[in-house]
Design a protein that fits this description.
Blueprint: E1 24-28, E2 31-33, E3 39-41, E4 45-49, E5 55-61, E6 75-81, E7 89-97, E8 104-105, E9 124-133, E10 136-137, E11 141-142, E12 146-147, E13 181-187, E14 197-202, E15 212-215, E16 220-223, E17 237-241, E18 262-266, E19 273-275, E20 284-290, E21 296-303, E22 318-322, E23 336-340, E24 357-363, E25 369-374, E26 381-382, E27 388-393, E28 402-405, E29 409-410, E30 415-419, E31 438-443
Parallel strand pairs: 17-18
Antiparallel strand pairs: 1-4, 2-3, 5-6, 7-8, 7-9, 9-10, 9-11, 9-12, 13-14, 13-22, 14-17, 15-16, 15-20, 16-19, 20-21, 22-23, 24-25, 25-30, 26-29, 27-28, 27-31
Length: 446
């Protein structure tokens, strides 16, 4: 019986009935009748039938090879599936990037075709495609990015100068991390009360919907099914704090990574979180981060807790933060530092010396030579204060021919390009090089 009406009869054990309902709320019961006409019914139960969201399995930009700014971009091979067989619609959002890593929406460009525009020369372009059915939107799909250039002149005149200002791409590099995120810090609060918080560092860009922060007993705060958790860039620091008692030295709530790459979210913010705060025992416990598939991304234990690695006592008014610079370093207890809660509120993982590394070099014609440095840490690096230099080794020599003292700041997750003084102006950076070198780098304090 469904909502009081029979959906079928069966006279043979085990008395199975087929029923394919539409989405909605139903009351189910079963009625048995014997051969003499006596009958009895089970107690009714209530169920909710939900519609499952569609998903995309492929989609790409149709144009390939050399793509020029006088061309429109179109999509091809967009394939989706819906578990319930519903009709699927698509929403489009074109995005641009100057480095191929951090993308931003192109305002107003929400059709399946991106019109040509000269001002988009020199950019990486991609499209976010979001499938939806009558029940709502599924997970977004991102096409592979393409680069757009100026079209070279098609003709030239004998005896006249010919020039072509092409766009030179120095693509930012993104470390291929295996883990999606790592726990980076947690605090018991300044007085050992309830003003606790947990911080994690995003290593791979994407959606954080359905991620979970929990204690060893399984008490969980889940990140809500909201667009605010979509497209979170790598390098973002996310702090989830006990909404019942916020640590007063935490910054104001911040629900978007923005330019500072940080999010501060209350567990009591029902638009962003659900569930119960995983109260961290002063005697011992575990802190566990899981993704939407319930896979453990990172974990750490302390005190009498059995979660590994166990980093020792983190009692009331204490905090612990990860001090190394690799994605698996958090598995080693010695890489965690335990200190007072009043000393831990920097919302950053302390950077170890030597975090910068050479991520790309350009060996072009003539003086078109450049070196790119990458800062994988979640904090900015002051090149002057931290004593960074470039050592120049010419023609394969083992002896330094000259040394360049670096100045400036490399933001968290950003790149810093250094070029020859006579290099092309299309390489955007300050030019400290005195001549074309081969270069290696070291930390000047070593």
């Amino acid at each position: 019986m469904v909502n009081g009406s029979a959906i079928g009869t069966n006279n043979t054990a085990p008395y199975i009935f087929a029923w394919q309902p539409a989405a909605g709320n139903y009351t189910l019961s079963a009625r048995a009748t014997d051969t003499e006409g006596a009958s009895a019914s089970t107690a009714p139960i209530s169920i909710q039938v939900a519609n499952r969201r569609p998903s995309l399995t492929s989609g790409q930009i149709a144009q390939s090879g050399d793509i020029f700014s006088d061309q429109a971009l179109t999509l091809s091979g967009v394939v989706s599936s819906d578990p319930d067989g519903d009709a699927v619609a698509y929403a489009y959002q074109w995005q641009s990037s100057t480095n191929g890593v951090s993308f931003a929406d192109l305002a107003g460009f929400t059709a399946s075709t991106l019109p040509s525009a000269p001002e988009r020369s020199g950019l990486f372009l991609r499209c976010r495609i979001t499938p939806s059915d009558a029940s709502g939107a599924g997970e977004p799909w991102f096409t592979a990015a393409v680069v757009m250039n100026r079209r070279p002149p098609a003709s030239a005149t004998v005896g006249q100068a010919f020039s072509y200002d092409s766009d030179l791409f120095l693509a930012g590099t993104e470390t291929n991390f295996t883990r999606k995120a790592i726990l980076s810090e947690f605090s018991q609060g300044p007085s050992g009360g309830t003003a606790e918080w947990i911080e994690f560092l995003v290593l791979r860009p994407g959606s954080l919907r359905g991620w979970k922060v929990q204690d060893a007993g399984g008490t969980t705060v889940s990140l809500a099914e909201t667009a605010a958790w979509d497209n979170i860039p790598a390098g973002t620091l996310v702090v989830i704090y006990n909404g019942a008692s916020k640590d007063t030295l935490l910054p104001a709530d911040d629900l978007s990574p923005g330019a500072d790459g940080k999010m501060v979210v209350s567990s009591a913010d029902t638009a962003m979180c659900s569930g119960s705060w995983p109260s961290l025992s002063n005697n011992g416990d575990g802190v566990i981060l899981r993704d939407s598939a319930n896979v453990i991304l990172s974990q750490v234990g302390y005190g009498s807790g059995t979660t590994t690695p166990n980093i020792g006592s983190v009692s009331g008014a204490r905090s612990a933060n990860y001090r190394s610079n690799t994605e698996d370093g958090g598995l080693i207890a010695a890489n965690w530092s335990i200190e007072t809660a009043t000393a831990a509120r920097s919302l950053k993982v302390n950077r170890a010396p030597g975090d910068l590394f050479l991520s790309e070099y350009l060996e072009g014609s003539s003086n078109n030579k450049a070196i790119e440095l990458y800062n994988p840490s979640p904090t900015s690096v002051n090149l002057s204060t931290d004593g960074y230099v470039l050592e120049i080794y010419s023609n394969g020599s083992a002896t330094t021919s000259s040394t360049i003292t670096l100045t400036g700041t490399v933001a968290a997750g950003a790149t810093f390009v250094i070029k020859h003084t006579s290099a092309s102006s299309t390489i955007p950076c300050p030019p400290p090089w005195p001549r074309p070198p081969s270069v290696s780098a070291r930390n000047g304090r070593r």
